[in-house]
């Protein structure tokens, strides 16, 4: 969780947005989602696990600013740490996450998009 706070600090520093953890318990909950799905739900699909942390951060909105960007970095870090990445161009990835955050897409839509563009890291 601490390194994710550092990621958020770096992300908002690039744009001049404000940093701060609004809801530490919500951040902890979002960070625990992949582990809980894997450990208790026996989920093994790395994309599902990566999207679970993305979704948790986007929905819980634990930071003052930079939640969507931090969520995407967290999801990609989980993929990369497990030997994968996604090849969605930035011009498509940003709008995809914005549509999800706005409630126009479901978690399953993000999983599908990530699975379609999953590559070896």
Question: What features would you describe in this structure?
Answer:
The chain is mainly alpha-helical and 121 residues long. The chain has a single domain (1-120), classed as Fic/DOC protein, Fido domain (Four Helix Bundle (Hemerythrin (Met), subunit A)), CATH 1.20.120. Helix content is 68%, strand content 5%. The chain has 6 helices and 2 strands. It has helices spanning 2-15, 24-39, 46-60, 67-81, 90-101, 107-116; strands spanning 84-86, 118-120. The protein has a two-stranded antiparallel sheet with strand order 1-2. Helix 1 packs across helix 4 and helix 3 (46-60) runs antiparallel to helix 4 (67-81). The longest helix has 16 residues, at 24-39. It is globular. The two termini are 23 Å apart. 29% of the residues are buried. This is Type II toxin-antitoxin system death-on-curing family toxin. It comes from Croceibacterium salegens. InterPro entries: Doc, Fido, Fido-like_dom_sf, Type_II_TA_Toxin.
């Amino acid at each position: 969780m601490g390194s994710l706070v550092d990621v958020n600090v770096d992300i908002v520093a690039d744009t001049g947005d404000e940093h701060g953890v609004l809801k530490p318990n919500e951040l902890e909950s979002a960070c625990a989602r992949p582990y809980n799905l894997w450990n208790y739900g026996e989920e093994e699909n790395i994309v599902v696990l990566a999207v679970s942390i993305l979704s948790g951060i986007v929905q819980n909105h634990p930071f003052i600013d930079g939640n969507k960007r931090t969520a995407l970095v967290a999801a990609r870090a989980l993929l990369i740490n497990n030997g994968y990445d996604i090849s969605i161009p930035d011009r498509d990835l940003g709008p995809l996450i914005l549509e999800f955050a706005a409630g126009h897409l479901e978690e399953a839509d993000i999983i599908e998009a990530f699975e379609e563009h999953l590559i070896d890291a």
